[in-house]
Structure formats: structure tokens, C-alpha cells
Write a structure and sequence with these properties.
single chain; 106 residues; mainly alpha; Arc Repressor Mutant, subunit A
């Protein structure tokens, strides 16, 4: 978990965003079972929403905000994490997959 916090901070995202914690929960769940990444809207968002007593669409929106911030504030690191394959701002699913892949390498 510390690694995810640190990575988000390096991307320029701070803990004052709800999406910060939703991201941490989503990455943690995806690390437990990577199949969750292929069922983001049907499985991952609802699980994170349930843990945080909110709605799945709120989870998606707030993680999208975090992904957007990371792209704007530290695009270079985001590109590094994605092995230089990004040509535009990542989708929420792509962003989560990038974070999960990075955390698996640790």
C-alpha cells in the first residue's frame, strides 16, 4: 500500500482527493486478482464503491480525476510507467492497469 501512496504522490496526486483512496483500493484489489482489470465497471468499481460506501460511478469519476491530474502534473513519469506507449491521456482502466503493472514489479 505504501508503494501505491508513494507512486500517486510522485505523479503529483495528493491524499486530499477521494480518488486517491479509491485508486489505492482498486490497485490493491487488482493485485489480489488481475481479472478484475478486465471487468472494471462490472466488478472493480462496485467493490471499491462498497468498501467506501459510495456509488460505482463516483469511484470511476474520482479515479478519472486522479488519472487526469497525474497526466497533467507528471506526464513524464506516467509515460515511463507505461513504457512510453501513451500518446494521450490514459483512460481509467489504462491508468489502473499501469499502476498495477508497476506495483507487480516491486
Amino acid at each position: 500500500m505504501k508503494e501505491i501512496y508513494s507512486l500517486l504522490n510522485r505523479l503529483g496526486v495528493t491524499a486530499n482527493y477521494r480518488g486517491f483512496y479509491y485508486c489505492v483500493d482498486a490497485v490493491s484489489l487488482a493485485l489480489e486478482d488481475s481479472k478484475r482489470l478486465s471487468l472494471v465497471t462490472k466488478r472493480l468499481y462496485p467493490e471499491v464503491a462498497k468498501q467506501n460506501d459510495t456509488a460505482p460511478h463516483c469511484v470511476e469519476r474520482d479515479i478519472r480525476t486522479v488519472a487526469r491530474l497525474g497526466w497533467k502534473r507528471n506526464r513524464e513519469l506516467m509515460m515511463q510507467l507505461a513504457n512510453g506507449t501513451l500518446t494521450e491521456e490514459p483512460t481509467v482502466s489504462q491508468f489502473l492497469a499501469i499502476l498495477v503493472a508497476y506495483c507487480k514489479q516491486l
